[in-house]
Amino acid sequence: MASINLSENLLVICSSQHINLFERQDSLLNYSFLSSFDITTIEVTLKGNKKKKTDQDKILCSSLSNNSKYLAVGTTSKLLLIFNLNENKELSQPFYCELIKAPTKICFLNNESVLVSNRFGSLFKFEISESKISEGVELLGHFSMLLDFCISPNGKFVLTADRDEKIRISRFPQAYVIEGFCFGHSSFVKSIAFYGDNKLISGGGDSIIYVWDLNLFKCISTSCKVSETAIRKVGVVKIVEGETSKEGIICLPDQSSSILLFSLNDQLQMTKLCSFNCSIQNEYIFDFAMDMARKTVLCVGKQGIYYFQPTTINLPSTAISELKFLQFSPPLNNFILNELNLCEDQLPLNSLYKIPLNGKNLEDYKNRKEEKLGEKKKKMLGEEEEN
Prior knowledge:
It is found in: Nucleus. Pathway: tRNA modification; N(7)-methylguanine-tRNA biosynthesis. InterPro entries: Trm82, WD40/YVTN_repeat-like_dom_sf, WD40_repeat_CS, WD40_repeat_dom_sf, WD40_rpt. This is tRNA (guanine-N(7)-)-methyltransferase non-catalytic subunit. It is a single chain. By secondary structure, the protein is mainly beta. The protein folds into two domains: 3-359, 7 Propeller (Methylamine Dehydrogenase, Chain H), CATH 2.130.10.10; 360-386. Helix content is 9%, strand content 48%. It has helices at 334-342, 360-386; strands at 2-6, 10-15, 18-24, 30-38, 44-46, 50-52, 59-64, 70-75, 79-84, 95-98, 103-110, 113-118, 122-127, 137-141, 146-151, 157-162, 166-171, 178-183, 189-195, 199-204, 210-213, 218-222, 231-241, 244-253, 258-264, 270-277, 285-290, 297-301, 304-308, 320-322, 324-325, 327-328. The chain is globular, with a radius of gyration of 22 Å.
């Protein structure tokens, strides 16, 4: 899986086993290559001088600090890697720590601490110094896989989304205090993002965008079903027309070559404004990121890096616009493009759907359960005989 991170002057593209770092030139839409790093070359020594192999490691998620000093990367071998980007912004050997489970998201809380969610349902906080990561502190836990999280604009709450169709609102950093839940999704919640100070948008396995009033923990608006696949990611952008702007909602459907743009009017009605499509056949957009002003969106796909800028608030619902290629000087080399093309999703969204336990599925489930219980009894009897 490929991911994209953007700061004021840096662009980071993570693809499979490589991290590629670019620097912005005279405009936001022109970048030059700085350095690359292969995570399989890292020599990892854990407690007790235990060596850990990284030759088959893959990147799962990544995050760039706001001051562009640190890059955090989570891997399939359950490692948290921290790269200290020096003044020359070169990628060198990272410092690291071992995670208890594979990470699902990494996000910098500030320039010196990072939050990491995992497949076990936990959210951890790690403190970072010049060349060291503190032991992680568990802030909260869900009974199912955590898929996304975010901190409220005022910094007082942490919101977490999981595979069990719910969004939890907890105090921060006293995350053991639960303020409430948002219920309404009929499948897993893959992505959440703040819309203003007191509203949240979400999307996931039911392919519907939800808008929540966080004062009431209540859904106040929904879109129609936006695609035949799950929603991979949602975000909030600025839609600009002249000197005025308003907030818009974007979503990336899974296994799609398009990003969809919606608006929310004063009556809380959601309207589709535009579909930003890639004209290349068999393209697959993995991820998107926005500039600080949220007026330009950069996307990484199997066949390149793209961008679009929402610049009008009066597009008809049938409007279609084209994703444009981001400019690189010199152009992206074939190695980067080939690795992007070979990227695979390490957590396919189709695997997150739950199989309803009814009819034949329920019968099969009971049979498997009886088989497991039988195997467990045999094992226990064997251990008793040995004793």
